[in-house]
Design a protein that fits this description.
Distance between the termini: 5 Å
Bound molecules: shikimate-3-phosphate
Number of helices: 12
CATH superfamily of the largest domain: Enolpyruvate transferase domain
Length: 435
């Protein structure tokens, strides 16, 4: 599917993005481990989270949609999982594959996970290493252990693990394995990554302690089933906010969006760039802070971003690059080498895309340098099977001259089904789907 986008008139209104992807994955997985029936409201029915839900079914868990964005999971503890009859296909979902590798590592069975072309290129050595230290065996292709990967689980022992990168996927895989390990499992992060696994484990009754960057899971916890509401995804909301900031005379409200401090790096970066953003209606949903964010058209200034901020805005960096093309001065994004191993090499993809649209952008090993403001011009661009690249291209197309055609835009459903409709709700008229 192609999207054709042209420059937009003013955007206005209030929208709620769909449920948070990271929280939806975790809610399904942890409910499967809990004993009893859990109800997950606001579950994100995107391709990635549906892959996780189907994988749990393949592993013998009763997971059923019981209404719009509502999932019922009948968990029965680790004992209820059974060896799947065939390979489990995780589609495009790196989070799903990595978290489930951790989950099955403690169960005496053999599970093989595959994925699409993009996922088949992504490194699983970062998961294999700690799981093997704990006593599981993980086989994949080549040195970086790319999928298909086979996990042979069994008796695990707790470890103290220092991941070389700040990755919530790695941390979560180790903690999930730790649930069925003997002894304590400790993860010491180099910088804070999203902490939804820790929060949810605690809320479900696990014996877990968090001391700054050190997380300790004590053995023997049984998780409690229950009801959980999934807040709206800030990483999806970010595109709607960016549209509000960039399109002339706009005022956009994004409501009930996740404001967990491990996910708000993008908002902090935008504040540094003098974006006009305001947060109101703060409250808590299922142990996570949420609020409404207002964005109005802003004159942006360039900024320099690196260090601990990067993992807290990792998925928003492609979009930040689009915003930087409109900011006065030179924006530097560094310490972001992890973007090279996402759904595509996002540093290369954004440098290529924005250059094609006339931006002044240079790619570095671990980041991007962008000088603005530049008037972007429409171009035909390829989404490279990466949902966040595709949505970033749409926002760039909103402020470009002429027509921007995004090829391969169906990948947007990976994380944000209904993206085009949400933009239309805000008044975007010049966006249409083409075969
Ligand atoms: C995710 C963690 C991040 C992020 C991904 C979702 C998660 O990946 O990029 O979209 O839900 O744990 P890393 O932890 O590998 O950086």
């Amino acid at each position: 599917m192609k999207l054709s986008v042209r420059s937009q008139g003013p955007l206005s209104g209030t929208v709620r993005p769909p449920g948070d992807k990271s929280i939806s994955h975790r809610a399904a997985i942890l409910s499967a481990v809990a004993e009893g029936v859990s109800r997950i409201e606001g579950f994100l029915e995107c391709d990635d989270c549906l892959s996780t839900a189907e994988a749990l079914q393949d592993l013998g868990v009763n997971v059923e949609p019981i209404g719009v964005n509502t999932l019922e999971v009948r968990g029965a503890g680790f004992g209820a999982f059974r060896e799947p009859k065939s390979t489990i296909d995780m589609g495009n979902s790196g989070t799903g594959m990595r978290l489930l590798m951790g989950l099955v590592a403690g169960i005496p069975m053999e599970v093989t996970f595959t994925g699409d072309e993009s996922l088949s290129r992504r490194p699983m050595d970062r998961i294999a290493e700690p799981l093997e230290m704990m006593g599981a065996s993980v086989e994949g292709r080549g040195e970086r252990v790319t999928p298909p990967v086979t996990v042979s689980g069994g008796d695990l022992k707790g470890i103290t693990y220092h991941p070389p990168m700040a990755s919530a996927q790695v941390k979560s895989a180790v903690l999930l394995a730790g649930l069925s390990a003997e002894g304590e499992t400790r993860v010491v992060e180099p910088a804070a990554s999203r902490d939804h696994t820790e929060r949810m484990l605690k809320a479900m009754g696990a014996d877990i302690e968090v001391d700054d960057l050190e997380i300790t899971l004590h053995p023997g916890s049984k998780l409690r089933a229950g009801s959980l509401g999934v807040p709206a995804d800030i990483s999806s909301g970010a595109f709607l906010l960016a549209a509000g900031l960039l399109v002339d005379d706009s005022e956009v409200f994004v409501r009930e969006v996740l404001l967990n401090p491990t996910r708000t790096g993008f908002l902090e970066a935008l504040e540094q760039m003098e974006a006009k953003l305001e947060v109101s209606a703060r409250k808590e949903v299922s142990g996570e802070p949420v609020g409404t964010i207002r964005a109005v058209t802003s004159d942006l200034r360039a900024g320099e971003f690196g260090g601990e901020l990067i993992p807290r805005m990792i998925d928003e960096i492609p979009l930040l690059a689009v915003l930087a093309t409109q900011a006065e001065g030179t924006t530097l994004i560094r310490d972001a080498g992890e973007l090279r191993v996402k759904e595509t090499d996002r540093l290369r993809a954004m440098a290529r895309l924005l250059s094609a649209m006339g931006a002044d952008v240079t790619e570095h090993d671990d980041g991007l340098k962008i000088t603005g403001p530049t008037k972007l011009r429409g171009a035909v661009v390829d989404a490279e099977r990466d949902h966040r690249v595709a949505m970033s291209a749409v926002i760039a197309g909103f402020i470009a001259t002429g027509e921007t055609v995004i090829e391969g835009a169906e990948c947007i459903d990976t994380s944000f089904p209904g993206f085009v409709q949400k933009l239309q709700e805000l008044g975007a008229e010049h966006i249409k789907e083409e075969e």
